Amino acid sequence: MTRRQHFIVILILGTLSTISPFSVDMYLPGFPAIAKSLDTSIAQVQLSLTAYLVGISVGQLLYGPLIDRFGRKLPLYAGLVLYLLASVGCALSNSIENLIAMRLLQALGGCVGMVAAQALVRDIFPVNQIAQVFSLLTLVIAVSPMIAPTVGGYATVAFGWHSIFIILAAITLLILIGIYFVLPDGKAPDPTLSLRPQAVAGNFWLVLKQPQFLTYMLAGGVAMSAPFAYIAGSPDVFMNIYHVSEQEYGWIFAFLAISILGPNQFNHFLLKRFSSEQVIYTTLIYQSVMGLLTVSLAGMGFLGLYGLIGMLFLFFLGHGMVAPNATALSLAPFTRHAGSAVALMGAFRMGLGALISGAVSVLHDNTAFPMVGVMTLCAVTGLVILLIGQRVIARYQENETPAGAEMAL
Question: Is 409 helix (H, G, I), strand (E, B) or coil?
Fold first, then answer.
């Protein structure tokens, strides 16, 4: 693969991975406008976000076995077409119930991009390059929250909130064209893999029995749920408590995304000297400390608008290094069941994300404390799981042959 082809493939895989994040971030500035237009409350509009996260979680469990059985591209086309049609349905919604239903369908279609993109990385690139490739993918993904809320804010003001979903449909159409003409097929279909529920459950169980996968899926997934607390709480915190405009909220969101972008590329260089295990361990310690400091300052009432933005920026500096390393370490043991592994990992992250976003809404008290408190809990819990899991992995490796895990799968 030439350098130019390498760049184009990563760009397409990155855009595939951003479909769902873009779908979340872009409509956040439109929450007040959607609530007013549909004659409902922002709390009800937040249910459309929860529905989307639930759809992503469930959908990934479906697509994992499908992309292992039928190859990567056929399920990819089917899912993206469903997403495109549901996006148009969102734009035409005239009630909050209809919007919630369309968002659920949109998620069930769009989540295929997340599953297929990560499986294709495992297909196309050598194991020793996976973490670096995921760092580059995260670079593309990190651009999403820098662009999406800003575009969403201006689109809402200029054309109304419906235009957000028309833009999402148009972007998906362009991605479909790129997939057809440029993206490699990846792993071939495997007709020997059964789609019967018992067989699918058996494949998932084989994946879950791998201690390395389980450790980094849990530790990484819990730690990486912190942004869901931010996504759920930030529209209310910034626009209702601190009274910023839709456009200003978009710029704040974009600014905080920079805190993920820089460290993500720093991670690319760190991996030349340190292992992924070392990087993720150090990063989770850092995030836990920053989170506890933020909670303390918020609890004492010392954080104004700019203070809160600054502390969130420092906290999210760690996210750009947790995500690629946790993903790479989770997928490293697998070849044949990479799709199922990706599906389980993604379903866990998004399912937990739905719970986290719901928790922030339940704990709402007209302050930033619930948002930053849940974020900190995610980081600290992720660190605890990592410390326990690394001991389990060490014992497992002492008792297994070097090829034991992959041979079993």
Answer: coil
Q: What angle do CA 328, 21, 65 make, to 5 degrees?
A: 55
311 and 297 in contact (C-beta within 8 Å)? yes
User: How far apart (Å, rounded) are the C-alpha atoms in residues 249 and 235?
Assistant: 8
Tokens of 370: 């619930």
| Tally of domains within the chain | 1
Mean pLDDT estimate for the chain: 84
pLDDT at 305 over 50: yes
Pull the structure tokens for residue 109. Answer: 């279609």
For residue 332, the SS3 value is coil
SS3 187: coil
Angstrom distance (rounded) from CA 404 to CA 400: 6
Write phi, then psi, for 189 (nearest 5 degrees).
Answer: -55, 145
224 contacts 349 by C-beta, under 8 angstroms: yes
For residues 65 and 340, the answer to whether their CB atoms sit within 8 Å is: yes
Instruction: Report whether 299 contacts 401 (CB < 8 A).
Output: no
Closest of 177, 176, 219, 320 to residue 261, by C-alpha: 320
pTM score of the predicted model: 0.70
> 142 near 257, Cβ under 8 Å?
yes
Kindly give the interhelix angle for 319-331 and 338-362, rounded to the nearest 10 degrees: 140
Length of the chain: 409
Domain CATH number, residue 16:
1.20.1250.20
**What secondary structure letter does DSSP report for 62?**
H
Q: Residue 363: give the domain boundaries.
A: 3-185+194-408
What's the pLDDT band for 99 if we cut at 50, 70, 90? very high
Whose tokens are 């067989």? That residue is: 199
Kindly write down the DSSP assignment for every residue of 130-166, as one continuous string: HHHHHHHHHHHHHHHHHHHHHHHHHHHHHH-THHHHH
